């Protein structure tokens, strides 16, 4: 994903502009450990997991193997 500026964890707007790609096509860049939601009660009852269990952003295989 060459459009991500790893140094400041933002989409590289100069590159996107040069490639004529709109930045709104990309999701917000967030830290891999950021809590992005909590398990809904109706899903918790089906899975046996506790309602409200935090869900984190996570990362891809290469990003996850690098550490934080």
From TrEMBL:
- GO MF term (any one): kinase activity
Q: What InterPro entries does its record include?
A: ATPase_NBD (IPR043129), FGGY_Carb_Kinase (IPR050406), FGGY_N (IPR018484)
State the SUPFAM superfamilies in the record: Actin-like ATPase domain
An example of a Gene Ontology BP annotation on this entry?
carbohydrate metabolic process
Domain Carbohydrate kinase FGGY N-terminal stretches: 2-65
Q: Which UniProt keywords apply?
A: Kinase, Transferase
Gene3D superfamilies membership: 3.30.420.40
Q: Which domain of life is it from?
A: Bacteria
Q: Which PANTHER family does its entry note?
A: SUGAR KINASE
Regarding protein family, the annotation reads: Belongs to the FGGY kinase family.
- Its name, as the record gives it, is Carbohydrate kinase FGGY N-terminal domain-containing protein
Organism source for this protein? Chroogloeocystis siderophila 5.2 s.c.1
